[in-house]
Design goal:
rod-shaped, alpha+beta, 5 helices, single chain, three-stranded antiparallel sheet
């Protein structure tokens, strides 16, 4: 009830209160009263502070109840901060892992960078959907696009319309791990001319 209503609850007679019917035998024998206060942050209950009173103790007075409410408020803030900190740690760990993986991949590809940049053949690297990721200087020279323009081309935009189906099939094959050789595609240069 306290979690649902986010309101404090005092049970003066634990032996007869209807909320305890289902758990009466195990509800802290020897205690006659309970005070429960919600641990809530921004209208969201995160838990309950559960105080048990021994026989003859009676209910908490106003000052004691106020002190307990201060403690639950401080606990709610601490729990929320702990959750935020845990999320930040998880995100930082994920970013660190991704960075290490990217650095590993870059180090593997560095040995090919000079070959890629200085090749007499035009080379364009695309993702599996055909979107250009980057191109070497010879490819930009052949096609007449700047490298930044190449990256902005939509999927298959530079491929001549009659060859687009074949280009799609190539991409699907790459996704399955099939890498055919000696396949030519006709491309449309920036000035409209075709090249193979």
């Amino acid at each position: 009830r306290v979690l649902q209503t986010r309101q404090p609850l005092t049970i003066d007679d634990a032996g007869a209160h209807p909320l305890l019917d289902a758990v009466r035998d195990s509800a802290a024998p020897g205690f006659t009263s309970f005070t429960l206060l919600p641990i809530a942050y921004e209208d969201r209950a995160m838990g309950v502070l559960f105080l048990r009173g021994a026989a003859g103790r009676g209910r908490l007075d106003e000052r004691e109840l106020w002190f307990c409410q201060v403690a639950t408020n401080a606990t709610a803030v601490a729990l929320r901060n702990a959750r935020v900190l845990e999320q930040l740690r998880e995100e930082t760990q994920a970013i660190s892992t991704a960075r290490r993986e990217a650095e590993r991949r870059v180090s593997l590809l560095e040995r090919y960078a000079d070959l890629f940049v200085s090749s007499a053949d035009g080379m364009v690297v695309t993702d599996l959907k055909g979107h250009p990721l980057f191109a070497n200087p010879r490819a930009t020279e052949i096609l007449g696009y700047e490298e930044s323009e190449m990256r902005k081309l939509s999927s298959l935009e530079a491929v001549v319309e009659e060859d687009r189906e074949r280009a799609v099939e190539l991409g699907l094959g790459f996704a399955r791990g099939e890498f055919p050789t000696n396949v030519d595609l006709r491309l449309r240069r920036k000035d409209g001319a075709e090249c193979t």
